[in-house]
Amino acid sequence: MTGLLKKPLKLALVQLAAGADKTANLAHARSKVLEASKAGASLIVLPECFNSPYGCQYFPSYAEVLTPSPPTQEQSPSYHMLSTLAAETKTYLLGGSIPELAPSSKKYYNTSLLFSPTGALLATHRKVHLFDIDIPGKITFKESDVLSPGNKVTLVDLPSYGTIAMAICYDIRFPELATIAARKGAFLLLYPGAFNLTTGALHWSLQARARAMDNQVYVALCSPARDMKATYNAWGHSMVVDPNAQVLVEAGEEEAIVYVDLELGKIEETRKGIPLQTQRRFDVYPDVSQGNIRFEE
User: Fold this and answer.
1) Is 164 in a helix, a strand, or coil?
2) CB-count exposure of residue 151 (10 Å: 0-12, 13-18, 19+)
């Protein structure tokens, strides 16, 4: 019987820092993706806001137009860099996220783009849950001052590998997205994310392991590298967790590329040992993966 992961997959998470110069950011990301590709990765992930600094004050000036697709080079240099690079390396490439401007509505989004080994755009995910928090004495941040939320669950079929789910950062705190994805057959949940020094210390690893444990799938979180000179200090610690909630690999705070070979049969082995799939009581509580779920914007 074929498992959810149909053949071995080498995953790379590229943890890098982005500065004020978008052109330099794109060139730096390109060099790291090339490095990951040469190391044999078939799926390469960049962090949230890999082409710009992270912050409400930056989103409008760094935003790119993505629709109608494909955009022109002038409208979205990030789109074209990612597309060209995916084709050049013959890899699946997840462009963590970039600020997006939708010209028809004049709304801004935090948007992730996934490209195929031919350079074709496979999927777009706009961050569904906006990062609005206020922890007294620690951090206050309100993405909704500038950004609008996306409106869908994003599942993508990678031919010959299986289905993955895309989400962004704060989305991980809402287990419904992960549960829906897992019950729809995803073998991997991908979260480019920029947790900070407060929330990262509290919840980064916990959230990754919790989503893996709840759903018995692989979970990957890709963070920017920590830059204490930036206005927003990312946690770092990009990591991959297996279906049994074991941390397989974890970066530190600095720039790094971490790699994991996803194992065939690991999901099925985990689910056989702890058979949550057959033990749920949908006669007692509802199945969140059924009903009115939006898969389109």
Assistant:
1) strand
2) exposed
CB atoms inside a 10 Å sphere around CB 10: 16
Phi, psi of 188 (to 5 degrees): -145, 135
What per-residue confidence (pLDDT) applies to 1? 56
> DSSP for 28-97?
HHHHHHHHHHHTT-SEEEPPTTTTS--STTTHHHH-B---SSSPPTTT-HHHHHHHHHHHHHTSEEEEEE
**Model pTM greater than 0.90?**
yes
Side-chain half-sphere CA neighbours of 237 within 13 A: 18
- Token match 């969140």: residue? 288
Active site residues: 48, 127, 169
pLDDT along the chain (297 residues), means of 10: 91 97 98 98 98 97 97 98 98 98 97 98 98 94 97 97 98 98 98 97 98 98 96 97 98 98 97 97 97 94
By the 8 A CB rule, do 70 and 79 touch? Answer: yes
pLDDT at 15: 98
Q: Are 294 and 40 in contact (CB under 8 A)?
A: no
